[in-house]
Amino acid sequence: MSTSETNPDGVPPSYPEYRAPAADPAPVRDAATVVLLRDADEGPEAFTLTRATSMAFSAGATVFPGGRVDPGDDLPEQFWAGTDLDSWVPMLGPDPALARQLLAAAIRETFEECGVLLARPSCGRTLADPRDFEEERARLESRELSFAEFLAAHRLVPDVGLLRPLSRWITPVGEPRRYDTRFFLAALPQGQEPRQASGEASAVQWLDAATALEWFRDGSTFLMPPTWSQFHYLRGFDTVAEALNASPDCSPVLPEIVPDAQPLRVRFALEGGYYADSPHHTTASDPG
């Protein structure tokens, strides 16, 4: 995020009335989320997880695979040979080290949470078969194995050419857990099939945008503002290829908590549509 995209408080210019408090004890953690797409009769479908009710954060919400950047996402330079990071600057920022960590986190989290692996042998063009690495996937999830160690052991490199930028959301000031989450799009690789691989999910399913928004309206599922907004955006595409070839606005979105609102409510550009659709009338922000 360049300073030209924000006001002096670091807030997107669409929220000029916002005034950050003098102190915010909650640190902002970098995170990455991948909206994995496949073509279907009703338009692109996205792979979603329902967060387990035992989770401390966003329990029961429908989300996309994702999570915060891990120390093991700081991959050595050899994993990035030939990777052009310039096109990612508008979304990931000008720091090459952080950009690489976010891209690595996106690929690692997708593998951990649904078993889809966007990595290939360092000397080949075909993606690796994730079924060969189920033991390693479980060890990655439990943090017994770092992503760098996994890739090095099997001579794999991240295939970031399969990712496309989608959006960037920052958890509102005042939330006890805050994330600066970059959302990516990716097509489901041929021959791979996502599944319920992580203990953080109680269920998984493919949802097209119209169905996801309809289920949100009737209370069948709960979508937090970032997730709802991604589905709202995807309504405009008939195919996965169209979505991947688009150029979305990746300016950072920083919702503002409405003071004293009961139930909890946040301000963001599409809040009118979100709250008009929502039977829940409560919200929080999350990496998914």
Written overview of the protein:
By secondary structure, the protein is α+β, with helices and mostly antiparallel strands. The longest helix is centred in the middle third of the chain and has 19 residues, at 96-114. The chain has 8 helices and 12 strands. Helices cover 24% and strands 21% of the residues. The strands form 3 sheets. Strands 1, 2, 3, 4, 7, 8, 9 and 10 form an 8-stranded mixed sheet that branches.
Provide mean pLDDT, rounded. Answer: 85
Radius of gyration: 18 Å
Give helix % range.
Answer: 10-25%
Q: Helix-strand pattern, N to C?
A: EEEEHHEHHEEEEHHHEEEH
Tally of DSSP β-strands: 12
Largest sheet: 8 strands, mixed
The termini sit apart by 20 Å
Strand content: 15-25%
Q: Which secondary-structure class do the elements indicate? A: alpha+beta
What is the helix tally?
Answer: 8
Low-confidence stretches: 1-22
Shape: globular
Q: Which SSEs are present, and which pair or pack?
A:
Elements: E1 28-38, E2 45-51, E3 62-63, E4 66-68, H1 89-92, H2 96-114, E5 119-121, H3 134-141, H4 147-153, E6 156-158, E7 163-170, E8 178-187, E9 201-208, H5 209-217, H6 225-234, H7 240-245, E10 252-253, E11 256-257, E12 266-267, H8 271-277
Parallel strand pairs: 1-8, 7-10
Antiparallel strand pairs: 1-2, 1-4, 2-3, 2-9, 5-6, 7-8, 11-12
Helix pairs in contact: 2-3, 5-6
What attributes does this structure have?
alpha+beta; globular; two-stranded antiparallel sheet; eight-stranded mixed sheet; 288 residues; single chain
